[in-house]
Amino acid sequence: MTNQYDRIAxxxxxxxxxGTELIKPGTFYExxxxxxxxxxxxxxxxxDGFEPGDKWPKKLSRVMRELFALTDAPTPRWVxxxxxxxxxxxxxxxxxxxxxxxxxxxxxxxxxxxEMNMSGLQRAWWGQAxxxxxxxxxxWVTEKSLLTTGxxxxxxxxxxxxxxxxxxxxxxxxxxxxxxxxxxxxTGTSPQSEIEYDAFVSAAEGNED
Length: 209
Prior knowledge:
Elements: H1 3-14, E1 21-23, E2 31-34, E3 37-43, H2 62-70, H3 95-101, E4 108-117, E5 120-126, E6 129-131, E7 138-140, E8 145-146, H4 182-187, H5 194-208
Parallel strand pairs: 3-4
Antiparallel strand pairs: 1-2, 2-3, 4-5, 5-8, 6-7
């Protein structure tokens, strides 16, 4: 469940960008903060040829609501109608995220929706969006940029399982066999087995100790 966050964090940390941080938003995973921007991946069930939609794919969690609330949303910023009264609990940021919200400037939030199946990563995008309301509707304020170019750029692809490519295919190698010397056969000396040889080596090592 943390793999989607761990892989992004590893790749960004490998870049060695000064000021990069790992932020734990009070959950079992960490988000990477680079250039004062939080990177947040999430999986989408998109249709081939179409970009991710304008709605959060699942029920919007409290953590995601807080992430949208603490970050500096890009313009145009959605503002609720002051005449509209919405019943519900007041959103209070947890301590780790409240500390981020107090920074000047406040961090930004980049969403990374991605598609994945049994063959691996298929497509991924990134962009910035505002959260419109509790239902999870999004307003993309930057163009969703494609991070992959299709099946040719899968990061975790399963090798083609073609006939004849398995470990048992192909011709057997030629293996040279050593024969016993004429002297050994003339004296009737029994051949030394691998087991006897291993026992001899072990005994020799024990004598050295």
